[in-house]
Structures are given as structure tokens and as C-alpha cells.
TrEMBL record:
Pfam family, any one: Beta-prop_RSE1_1st
Boundaries of every RSE1/DDB1/CPSF1 first beta-propeller domain copy: 204-393
Cross-referenced PANTHER family: DNA REPAIR/RNA PROCESSING CPSF FAMILY (PTHR10644)
Protein name, per record: RSE1/DDB1/CPSF1 first beta-propeller domain-containing protein
Gene3D superfamilies: YVTN repeat-like/Quinoprotein amine dehydrogenase
InterPro entries xrefs: Beta-prop_RSE1/DDB1/CPSF1_1st, RSE1/DDB1/CFT1, WD40/YVTN_repeat-like_dom_sf
Amino acid sequence: MEHALRISYVNLGPLPVTINGGKIAKIMDASNLGEQLEAPSTIPLNLSGLFFSEPEVPAANAYVKKTLLQSPIIHQIVPQFMVNTSKPRQGLSSTYEIELVVKHTLLLVDGVEYPLTSGVTAAAVVPRTNSLGTGEDLLLVALSSGFQLLIRVWRVPRTFSDALFASQAETEPDTDAFYVYKPFVVQWWKLGGDDHHEGACLALSVHPAGLAVVSAAPDKVFRIYTCENTESGLQLLLHFNVPVKGIILHLCFAHPFTQPGAETQIVFMALVFTDHNRLEISLYSWYASEPILGNMEKVTLPLKNTFQFPVMVVPLAKNSSFLFVCADEFVIVTVNNIWSADYLFSKFAYDGSFPTSYHVSQIQSQSELDSATDEVFLASDSGVIFSIIVSDNKSLTCRPILRVGDPISTFTLTHSSSGEGLILAYASDTAGAKVLYIPALMAPETVTKWDKLPYTSATLLNDYKNWSPVVDVSVFDALQNRACAAESAQELWTLSGVGKRTKLTQLRSGYAVKRESRVFDEFRKADSVAFLAHEDKHYILCSMPFETRLLQYVPEIDENELDEDSDEIIDPLKEIEDSGLVFDAPTLCCSFLPDSNTLFQFSRNSITATDLEQSKTSFLTDSEILFAEIVGEIAVLAVLKNGHVTLEIIKLAKISDFANVDDLISSNLHFRILASIHTDDDISMMKSFHLKDTIMIVCGTFLGFLELLKVDPLSGDHLRVFRISLNDDVPAPYMGRIPHDCVFLETTLKLFLGTKTGEYAQIDLDQSFSPRISPFLSLGITPVSLVLSERDPHFLFVCVKNLWLFNFYASPSPMRVSFDEKLDKMVLLLVELPTQEPQHLRFAFLREDGLAIGSIFCHERPLVRQLGIGEPAKRLLYLDTANVFVLMCKSKGQLTRLKFADKKSFRMLPTMEIDSKSGKPRTDWIFEASETATCAMVWHINRHERVSKKVIVGTQLDDNTGNLKILDISKVAVEGSRTPAIRVVELRSIARDQPVTSIQQIGSTIFFSSGASVYKTSYSLENKKFRPVSQYASLSSTVTSLGVAGNDVLLVNTKFDSVLALKYPENEDDTDENTDTCAKEPAVRFKDPIPRCLVNVTSVGDKLAGGDKLFSTLRVFDPKLTHPDHCYSVTMSMIPRVYTTSFNAFWAKNRAEEQLSCVAVNGQVITLCPVYDKGDEITTLNANLARNHHLTESTALSTVMDKLDRPFLEKVTGKGFQSVHKPFFDYQANREKFVDCDVEELSRASQSSILL
């Protein structure tokens, strides 16, 4: 047997050693030697190093990139995107409407995330009206990397990637979870040269009938693509460039004319700010049936200097005009106005809040609108949506129809599927993003004042969980819980949002559980949970420590069946009092026999058969059942009798007449023993599975052995297949692995094993059932329970109080499963329930607080917890001694300048400011009226055998001065109650003549920046006071941030001077007591010779890294190199703020391993992990790629990447069938810079232990 973790122990008998220049001798007992040889004293035999020393790890020479979270910013929502579900992969052919959301860095298709290589700059839907009779929409997307993609959506198996690696998985079972709607690129264009800014597309416009598409660059040019129908679907022909003398502000197509002969005439409008600082409207017209060259007509209308810059331009179909929406007025410009140079535009005043977006829908807010009237829905930054009705280009009415609590950046308004009420889907760049059901709009007579509009009554259908903009970031070590292990070594928390909508946010990724019932706390002490199904009825059996309880489960109650006039909440679980089961003892196993109404129940001392009305029970007198399993009509029991364990194989039969059965056990008709297998082992686990015509029995022992038996259910013949030890590679001090649970996947002959010490392993069996064990993963510290989904066996759940999911479609590594709730709850057990909801699995979860029903979305997504602060918070700090977050706010009240959130209870805590001398509440405030916090740090004070922690806060005042405040923060109980509160004591305040911008600590020395200088101070434990503040360094520009590298290097980041690394010897006192300045200049360990504008700087290993905000680039510096090209650069679709993190999962070999994590204001989180290109991670990736794609292992990675790029070599346009995330679509500067695990083929093979 091959074992991945085996350690070869050497026999210490005759030990060969090298002596005297290579002659070999053996050190033995002296009596066995004729002439004794003496080993030289200069060669010590360090045997411990021979067995357990690890080889030196080679230095990292490559990077592995992984996006942990994509940006949540939504560009466009398409609630009814039409997809042809039966088209072949090479062409078109039944249709289905799905929801498609275009986010900044991904496409959300029917709820599933598909990442893009770079940020979206523009997107547009090519409508279904021109799709050659198939009625299918297409999506056109422009990327910031300079590419433009035409995307079509297919319904394909989850294992299908593209034409290069087409899987034949269609032969597998057809389940809802197995198929997904997936976007593929069918046509692409490289818009510019190597500089992605040169050809970037900032706006896309599509003809309402799908006849043409316009792609506009920032200035000077736009491109016209003519749409053509082919047998394979719609395609865009070669583009036609139209030069423009100025900056394109707005562009749109006019709606098709209805006059005979003008159906194919295309009219396109562009609003340009010319090189002469004038606004002008250009109208282009041509016929779709003719070539553009030589047939395009252009009319230009220069606008007066008094014409306002419009926020947006809306084409009006029925009025053949354009609606210019300005900040305080509406202007209607007709086609005739432009053609005839008529400046008599219709203008209408607007006194609503600032307009942000519009939507033209098929619905009408008023049923009496005639066919010659246009209605446009206009959203604003106050959350109000207005109805704009235009008639005959001379009449315009504007009225509010609904209001939500967030500013709206983009939205859609559609009819609900029932035909009653409306569905509002909206997104905000700075607040929430939700889908709401609105029963009715505001009636005109209810609106009195626009500035006091009530919020519209609505029901939340979906929450997109927006956490942008990210204001500040805090990364800290995860709290180690005694009850369960921390899933990742570190946590990521942010401040997100603006103003009073700012929220404290925890960012994670994994699989989300939506709780669908109340929590039944009376079952929180259950030992096991089982699901029973008989005919059309479903039951859940809970085995308690001293009893058993049976619940009837009503799956997925139809809301239409509920009584609308009743406030009663109908629970999906109802307890059955009289079922014939034994209720006064815990149950080991319970199951219905196939095709019968007979239910068998096994407890430790009894066996019961029942049809839930009448029953028969037999009790054991001289034996005890340790484990019980029912497979079909076969029961497998582990019975303890007279100190020995016997495996009993029993054939069960249904009972038609319970009155004629005297004793259940002695009835050979209903309880026939096929075989008895004696064992001398102390069994820790027993599981049974059905494989073809054989019963497989897996037994585990407390000595760490695993045994597989085969039993013939007809004859009772049995055979031991194998017996292996799980502890061959376990060092002596370790307690050893004890099997606890296992499940078997018949299709692949895989046995999944969990131990009592929290470890998991996969055992592969060949056709002869020879086992091969994969390396063990440590997923927790408690016994492992396993659940393999019956609906789709690609999903394996591992429960160790934390809940993990192996999604074998996506990755060989597990991901966390978490409830979408404010507080995390430990999951003890789970059992699968039936469901009809696509892409979901439903379970009954036994949590620490009770039993709950919930469904899991079968795709990974962000897991976001948010807590409203109620103040505009700017800085975030975690104080572990009190387990609270310190929130520095820019609020009006002085008491709320510092707010505190409890991490455990996830709620805000009241604050008490205490005077340091009297110990009573202060009569004044810690912060002055114009003083706000700008930065903070947890100050560690080494007090001999313990470390105390205080908080140092830097502040700024209106007069451009600042303070350095030392605060003592602790958690106390409010007097007279058990409610926790935060006690804040100001220990000292150090005034500065400029604002304090950053604080760091090296050893016992505190560094802080103010203006263009860095100062330092320290605390004397002997004198119990601070030493005088001295200037440590003076820079040529303002210091923007400080950082620390190692134990003796201070990183200084300035406005214009990039980064400096200053070496500070802790044991050296360089302060001049007379001048309060440094006696000597600080030693410069590294200085970037090129001026750069960096956001911040951090260190990872011996490298320095910073985010360049002028070029949206991550810079990694090697201080050992001095030439100008000494930095490693990665171009990103964001301005990265760089942090040194250890987002390593619990099973990682080195949980302290560091990565570079880039967090952006747009909410995107990317990690770059330094690796050795011949190390374990790349070697494993090569091996998995070789197995998945039948390649040579040594070159599998390079072969896959070459195949992904092969269709694109030396091309700037192309057609095909490609994944939306191709390395070729990334920035040109990133070519071959890293191993991109966001590529689907690599993510399926990567066993990365990085976990957010």
C-alpha cells in the first residue's frame, strides 16, 4: 500500500558511517570485532536530526494568484436575459429567462459567479429581436485590459469548460445541480496596442432592433459594428471607425422609424465636448442594407454655451426624440431639431434629487397612457424613482412612484411572475443592492412634498451584499476556540460604505446556508438525526441521550396554501406522539424496508418493527448492540456479548400481521441471521454499503485499523478484503488516528474517511479493492461526521463543529459552509432532505442552538456579515484583549468619535469615558469639538512576564494641528446590569503642531508621522513615563503611511518619494536629550530610486510591496537589487492596498505562511502567494492537471497554459467557443507573471490551502 505520509524509520542495529576518507565500517559491540575501530570524536552522531529534521525550504521564485473575493459593484442588471437551452454548442436552436448581473469583475449568471480577467468598463445586451428566430439575447462586454467580448450563454454540465477541454460528463445523471447556465466568448476584439489605456472602451450602445453596435473610446473615435445573422447565431462584422474631434460624453441609437421604407434606417446620436470647449450634437444616419462607407450622413448641431452638461441622454421611441436629463431640468431634442438646426428645445424644470440612472420598461405606471406617449423611469441618489411621461415632445410630467432606503446607481423595474405587483432590482455603488417585491406604486394623490416622501412598502427577495466602497481594513489572527478549530489563521474585516450607512463588515468566502425554519431548541442535545421517507410522507428522527423523538417533515410549504388572514407561523416539523417506536431510549439505526410500510428501529437493548400504527418490540437480555446499519433488507449489527464483539448479518422482512408475531428476534421469517462474524477488535466505527450484489462492511478500531469485509446477502458468505493501519506515519507522541465515520461513492470506488481527531482522508479502491490512501487533512479538533449528498454525489459534507464542503466539480480542496446570519453557530450533525429548488441542497442541521432546516446554494459565493454603525466611520482597529472593534468616526457628537462593536455578539456597545485620576465619568470629552481620529495602533507593553495592551490614537484638529492620545480600553458591565459596556480612559495626550497620520511600533519604540517628518518615543517602565518625543527622520514630502518589516526596519511611504526602508537598532539609544532629535541619521536599508505614488507599503519575506495608485499596479521590491528595474509589477483592475496576511486554512502545513493580499476600494480581494516553482504546491498542481487532462506530469501546467493561449497567437480579433476567463484577455503586462488559479482548469486542480 502506498501511503503519502509514511516516514521511513531506520533500524538502529548496524549503522554504516563514513570513516577515514570513505572507508566503511560498522559500529558494533566491541566483543564482535577482532581489531576495534574507534570513531573519530570530530563526527558527532545526531540521530534526532536523521529522523525528524526537515530540509531547508528553497527560496520562493514564483507567485500564485488567487482572487478571494470579486468586486460587488454592479454595472448592469438584466432580470430577463433570454437563453436558448436546447441549442447545440456550435450553433443555435426552447428558451428560458434567467437573471444576469454584470459586476465590475465578474458575470453573475443565474446566481453563479464567473470571474473576468479585468474590470468591466461598459456592457450592453444585444436584444433577442435579431437572433434569427431563436429569441436569444447576447451580452457585449468591454474590459479595462483593452478587450471587447461578445458572450453567449449555454446550459451545460458543470464539468464543461470549453472546446479545449470538453468533458463527456453528459453521460452522468441529469440533476439540477449538475447543469448550469454558463457564459462563453463567441467573438472577441483586442481594441488597442500594448498599452491598455490606448484602446479602452468606455461606452457601448446597441440598436434597439439589434442592427448595429457602437463602441466608443474615451476620445477621438468610436467604432460601428454591423450585426449579421448566421447559422451559428449573431455575429459582428468588421468595424468602421468614425473620428471625433473631442471627448464623447453620451451616445445612443434612436429607435427605428415606423414609416414605410425607413425600418432599416439607423440613426445614431453622439454628444461631444469638442477641442474648442463646446458641446455639440452629432447625428449619424445610414441604412443597414448598405455599406457604411460612402453612405453615412452626418449632421452636427453646436449647442450654446448656456446649455447644461446632461447627466444622461434617453432615446424616446414614440416621440422620435432624445431626452437630455440635467441636474435641474429636462430638455427634449428632436431629430428634426438637429436636422434643421432648430434651437427651440422643449425644457422642463426638475427639482428632485440628483438623477443617477434610467430604465425604459414595458410596464406603465398609469394604465391610461396612449400609444404615442413615452414613459421613462428615472432613479436618483436619494433612492426615489420618478416616472417621466413625455407626450408629443411638448408635454412632460414627472412624479415619484416609489422610494427605497439607498441611493440608486442602476436598476430595473419589471412585472412579477404572478402578474401582480412589480419587481425592483437595484444596486448602489455606496450602499445596498437588492431585489424587492413592490405590491403597488405611489398613487399621485398621496404625494404632497417630494422632500418628505415615505418609503415604499416592499418585500426583500434577494440581497446582493454590497461591501464597497472599502474605507479601511483590519487583518488579525483568528480567535482559537476550545470547542472548534478556527477555519483560517487570520480574518479580514473592513469598514464599508459612506456616511451614516457605513458598516462593519466581515469578508469571507464559501457556501451559504439560508435558514428556512425557526430553530427548534428542544433538540439541541440530540446525538443523531435520520431522515425517513415512506410514500409521500417524510420524517426526521432525533435520537437524544435518553429518548427518541419522531418528527413529521412537510417539505417546501406552498405560500399560496397559507391563510393570508392568519398570523400563525406554520412549522415544517410536527412531532408524532404515538408511532409504535421505542421513545424511552436512544436509537442507533432506523429505516423503512424497501417497498413496504415496515419500519425497523434498533437501540442498544431492543429491536422494534412498526408501521407507525402498530408495532412489535423484542428486548435483548444478555447482549448489547454497539452499532447498527440497514442496507436495503439487510441489517448489519455489531453485538457485544460476554466481552466479545460479533458482526451479525440479518435478513429483514416486512410484517403484514403484527398480531401473529410473538417474538421478533426468534422469528426466522422476519429476522433471519445469515452470518455471524467474530472479531477481537474494539470497534470504533461500523458502516455498511451496497455495491452491486454485495454488502460492503467497513469497520474501524480504536487501535487505528480499518477493515473492509464483503458479504453475499443471499448466502451469507463473507470475505475480508483488506485490513490497514492508519497510523504507520504517526510519530510516537501522537495519540493516533481512530476511525469515526465513512461514506462510500460507488461510481468511483472512493471511500471517504473521518477520524475522531478531526482528520479526513480519501481512500481510492481499484477493481480488486486494493486501497490507496490520500494524505490526511486536519479539518478540526473534534470527531468527523461525513454526509455524501444523495441528490448529487459530487458534494461531500464534513462536519467537525465547523462545516466543510468538498465540491468535486470545482476543487479538490474543501470550503467552509456558513449560515447567512449575524452570528456563527457550530453545526454538530446534518441530514439531507428532498428539495425541488434548482442548484440547491436542503438539510436538517443540528446546531448548538437546536434543529433547523436550511438550503445550501451549490456554488461558492461571498459570505458577508455586516453591522450598521450609524456614523461615518473612517478607521478600524481590533483590540483582542476586549474582543472589540475600535471604530474611529467623523461624527458630530464628541462621545461618538470612538465607537465600539463587540465581535462575539456582533453588536454595538455603549461607551463610558472615565477620568484617569478620579475614576469617575469625565466632565469633558476626550476629543475636542473639532478633533477627529486619523489613525490608531494597539500598543504592546512588555512588563517582564506579561504583555499589556493600550490603544494609541492619532488625531487632527481644524487648525491643522494634532494629538497623540494613549487610551486604556476595557470591557466592563453597566452598573446594575449584566449589559457589557466599554470603559475608555485617556492616559496621556501629546500635542503636535501637525496632524498625526500614521503610527507603528518596533520593539518598545513608538514611531509616528506628522507632516513630512517621522518622530519616535518610548515608555520607561522604571520611571513610569514617556521619554521625550524626538524627530527620527525628515523627508522631502508628506509621509502618507508607515510600516514595519521584521523586527528592526521601519517602512516610510511618502507622497512623492515612493518607499524607504530605515533600519532601527532597538538596543541603541540614538536620541540627543538636549535637542530632542536623533544624534545620527537613520540607516537607509533601501530606497526606491524611482518616484512613485504608493498607497501603502508592507513586507513579505525579504521583499517589500506597495500599491501604485497612478498605474493601478502592485509593486514588489527586492532590496538586494539596486538597478531601476528591480521591482516585480502586476497590473490590476483596482488601486491595491497591500497587506501581509496568513489566510491559511486549518489543514495548511504552515499556517503562518505569508501572502500578499491586495484589497481595493471596489471590494476586490486578491492574494499573491510566493512559492518555489519545484515545491509541493506546483508539483501537486502539475500532477492533478496531468490526471485531469491526460498529460505528462512534468510539463502539465505549461501545456495547459499553452493550449489556453493557442487560438489567440498573433491575432487581434477572433471567433470561437472560449471561457470568459482566459489569460489572453488579461493585461498584456501580466503575461507569464504568475500562476493564475482563477483560470477554471487550474482552480479545479489546485489544492491551495488559502482560505478567507
